[in-house]
Design a protein that fits this description.
The structure holds two protein chains of two kinds. By secondary structure, chain A is α/β, with parallel strands linked by helices. Chain A has ten helices and eleven strands. In chain B, 32% of the residues lie in helices and 30% in strands. Chains A and B meet through helix 3, helix 4, strand 5, helix 5 and helix 6 of A and helix 15, strand 13, strand 15, strand 17 and strand 18 of B.
């Protein structure tokens, strides 16, 4: 038996000679560089988005996927990276993106009509090369349609960005790339936050008619009035404002350990030597107080703010602009 | 002071052969005239050896096997002449445009760059070959001697000072390009070479042939001295080709376009220039049948256009012919010529070669040439209007944006790229609406177009909403937020509501193909006061 194994091993090594070095040797997976997402909670959870790899963000509608996307785009464009967004259903809103801090001139927006077109467009952009961040937004495509995308398509995308510095992000309702994805996050909305209280009582005479003023502006005015107690919010629907929402991110799968791993709240410093690739699959459990002193959790929650809410936080001079 | 003359022998044949590389080693005869009276006007050495004579009828010439017959191409002669001038300007700024097939260059100051006069001459031959020209080069201290030697002697000829008459002696007298009647007279006299003409007494010659005879005599002795008449460098880079048969398929057209682009790029490279834009002009075949079909469809008597033009604007100067061909093909795929093509003309707007220096610490970005190709392919896939960077229009109208051509920041800034912000991700200064916030901003997804919805109101408040075949209860609402404007052109008047919707269990099971409803969500609905209906604008995601 042993001699057969030895013969088999030497045969395999001979046939792979010149093509593969030490086919039976253990190889450390190299460290993966990550980039900040712009959301500290997600950076703490996953270490950021990996370069040269495919990341999936999945979740139902209104779960916070676009929030993460815009935050990542803002973070990348702030670093002068060239970004691309392949929009399968043409649902990108440049106004909210600009309000979120995205530098629109650094963004190539490809407005597609359907899944097939968007996959081909993604292929062209990835093969073109040079983009720091590419997002494929399939959020509004029916999950049963995306399920039919063959696995080799995801594998092809992953291979195309491997050994490059491109972050490839896919947004969808369900995770489909399986092991082709180096990081999979599932988003869900925990709840909405509304300012003001009381029942919704209609008072037609108190409708704020703001002809020619943008939606953000007049909501900002309402926010100011609410903040200063100038508006009796009880019973007036326009006195209630959507302040934002609480979002939960759950890490379903990760394949890498970032060299940019941030310190945890306990101040634990990640060792830099030795093999650094760890494949972790979480099944909804918390890994608190693990043996190596690492406080890990597979979920993190954060709050997303509505645009008009943070206008309130600006100094007066900025508000007057 | 030395001068070099570059002469293209069999110019008419070489102009045609330059466009068809496969003819280079073949016997070629060029015919001209009106059908059916075509006659041979030029033939290369191989065709002459095969028996082709000038003035022969086309039908006669066709009987010789192995001889390729082509029609004269004045357009290609023009571009070949321009290529010859580009060859001259690629080496020296002082060039004289003597005749369509001959130029003269001043070699003063070139020895430091190229070495001896012999090396300079060979450099000309090499560069001419790269432009598709087989040239004869002669170097002499006298301009006319150099021209005559280039016309009459093959290969590279160097004439030292004092040996002009001796070197020109054996040249046939027709090399001097005398008027036909003078040539006839000289032939009748038995004066067949320049040496014999130079030996004639000049006074008697002037009595019989006048001043022209004296001039020819001085030329034959290599004694005619004159100055160089400089030609002004042209920025016109144009290649054209008339097709023997009309071509309709893009594949066949691509073959011709590739050849023309190759020639164009070589000429640009010879002058150290690149193309900033390429203008394509196609002359179309007038088709009677297609013209009739068009008029039947539109009830108008309208002929198809005679010409089809396209301009390919490039983000950076490019002279890679393969890349340019890909871009041209992609452009023509999306908008092909409406009829078969009988003539193609390409012209390039020349510009200096792009020089950029990348910063060591700046993030990588796509190569401009590759990006242009990617953008062309994307435009082909999704349409020109659906690729670019979004820019907000200064209006309060919802979803008022325009798509601008996507350009790299460093190209937009003229080669200088803005440094990124400090490490740590602090955003650079932007306009006032791009704000730095502690918490991430809620993302919003637009529905284009807005989806019609049905809303149930109670005391003026929305309490229930129906869209995507699902019914949801509105658990919280904010609004109405009236917005309207642009009454003068494209008015809108809407009342918006932010609503939190909780979908029933049956709605969750009812997963429509376009957007299945989750358990709950935050949506923006509005009542359009002009259309009197409710719509779903988008969702907060």
């Amino acid at each position: 038996m042993r001699s057969n194994l030895a013969t088999l091993r030497s045969d395999v090594e001979l046939s792979l000679a010149g093509r593969v070095v030490s086919p039976f040797g253990y190889r450390d997976r190299k460290s993966v560089e990550t980039v900040l997402t712009g959301i500290p909670e997600i950076d703490a959870l996953a270490g950021g988005f990996p370069r040269g790899a495919l990341t999936e963000i999945c979740g139902p509608p209104c779960s916070g996927r676009t929030t993460v996307l815009l935050s990542a785009l803002a973070s990348r464009t702030a670093e002068a990276e060239v970004c691309a967004l392949i929009d399968a259903r043409d649902s990108f809103d440049p106004r909210s993106a600009e309000a979120a801090g995205v530098e629109l001139r650094q963004l190539l927006w490809v407005r597609c009509r359907g899944l097939e077109q968007s996959l081909r467009a993604a292929d062209l952009v990835i093969q073109g090369g040079g983009f720091g961040f590419i997002a494929l937004d399939l959020s509004d495509v029916a999950p049963e349609t995306v399920r039919h995308v063959p696995l080799n398509a995801w594998f092809r995308f992953r291979r195309a960005v491997e050994d490059t510095s491109t972050v490839l992000l896919v947004l969808e309702q369900e995770s489909n790339a399986k092991t082709c994805a180096s990081l999979v996050l599932r988003m869900s909305m925990k709840g909405a936050k509304w300012s003001g209280a009381g029942e919704n009582v209609n008072d037609p005479t108190s409708v704020i008619n703001t002809v020619g003023i943008s939606r953000h502006s007049h909501k900002f005015v309402a926010h100011e009035l609410l903040a200063h107690g100038c508006l009796q919010h009880a019973g007036l629907p326009h006195a209630r404002l959507l302040d934002g929402s609480d979002v939960q991110a759950e890490m379903l799968h990760t394949r890498m350990q970032s060299i940019n791993f941030q310190q945890t709240q306990r101040g634990f410093q990640q060792a830099q030597n030795g093999p650094v690739s760890i494949e972790r699959h979480f099944a909804g459990r918390d890994f608190a107080n693990s043996s190596d002193g690492f406080e890990r959790s597979d979920t993190q929650s954060f709050s997303a703010q509505s645009v008009w809410s943070y206008l309130h936080a600006l100094p007066v001079e900025a508000k007057l602009k | 002071m030395s001068f070099a003359a570059i002469h293209i022998p069999d110019f008419i044949v070489q102009a045609v052969v330059r466009g068809e590389g496969a003819l280079r080693e073949r016997a070629v005869a060029i015919v001209e005239g009106t059908a059916p009276l075509w006659s041979v006007v030029a033939a290369n050495r191989r065709a002459a050896q095969a028996g082709i004579e000038l003035g022969m009828a086309k039908s006669q010439a066709a009987q010789f096997t192995g001889v390729e017959i082509r029609h004269r191409a004045p357009a290609q002669e023009k571009t070949t002449h321009e290529a010859l001038l580009d060859l001259g300007w690629s080496v020296s700024p002082r060039v004289e445009d003597s005749t369509p097939d001959t130029i003269v260059l001043d070699l003063a100051g070139l020895s430091g760059l190229f070495g001896t006069e012999e090396k300079i001459a060979h450099e000309f031959a090499k560069r001419g070959s790269s432009l598709g020209l087989s040239a004869r080069i002669a170097v002499a201290e006298n301009i006319e001697v150099a021209i005559l030697a280039a016309r009459g002697l093959p290969g590279v000829t160097l004439i030292p000072p004092g040996e002009e008459a001796q070197r020109l002696r054996a040249l046939p007298v027709h090399t001097l390009l005398p008027a036909p009647e003078i040539l006839e007279t000289l032939t009748r006299w038995g004066v067949e070479t320049c040496g014999r003409l130079a030996a004639l007494p000049v006074i008697q010659l002037s009595e019989r042939l006048g001043q022209e005879g004296v001039r020819l005599h001085t030329l034959a002795r290599g004694a005619l001295v004159r100055s160089l008449v400089l030609a002004k460098p042209s920025d016109n880079f144009q290649e054209e080709m008339e097709l023997d048969d009309s071509v309709e398929e893009l594949e066949s057209l691509s073959f011709v376009l590739g050849r023309l682009l190759d020639q164009l790029c070589k000429r640009l490279a010879a002058r150290s220039l690149s193309a900033r834009s390429i203008r394509m002009e196609f002359e179309l075949e007038r088709s009677f049948e297609k013209g009739l079909q068009l008029s039947a469809h539109t009830d108008q008597h309208k002929l198809l256009p005679r010409k089809f033009e396209k301009i390919l604007a490039l983000p950076v100067p490019i002279r890679d012919s393969k890349l340019l061909l890909k871009l041209v093909r992609l452009r023509l795929q999306s908008d092909p010529p409406p009829a078969a093509v009988i003539k193609i003309m390409l012209s390039a707007e020349a510009d200096r070669v792009r020089t950029t220096q990348r910063g060591l610490f700046l993030p990588a970005s796509p190569e401009p040439e590759k990006l242009e190709l990617t953008m062309a392919r994307l435009a082909n896939l999704v349409g020109d209007a659906n690729v670019g960077s979004p820019q907000l229009i200064d209006t309060h109208c919802p979803d008022a944006i325009r798509m601008e051509r996507f350009r790299l920041a460093q190209e937009a800034a003229g080669g200088r790229r803005k440094k990124p912000s400090a490490p740590g991700g602090a955003p650079a200064e932007k306009n006032s609406s791009a704000l730095r916030i502690a918490k991430p901003a809620n993302g919003f997804r637009l529905l284009r177009p807005s989806v019609p919805a049905r809303v149930e109101l109670h005391d003026g408040l929305p309490v229930r909403v129906f869209f995507y075949g699902a019914r949801g209860e509105i658990v919280a609402a904010s609004g109405p937020w009236r917005t309207s404007g642009e009454w003068w052109q494209d008015p809108w008047d809407q009342a918006e509501w932010d609503v939190e919707v909780r979908f029933s269990a049956s709605a969750q099971k009812n997963k429509r193909a376009s957007n299945p409803a989750g358990e709950r969500g935050l949506y923006l609905i509005y009542y359009d006061l002009r259309q009197h209906g409710w719509f779903l604008r988008g969702m907060y995601d």
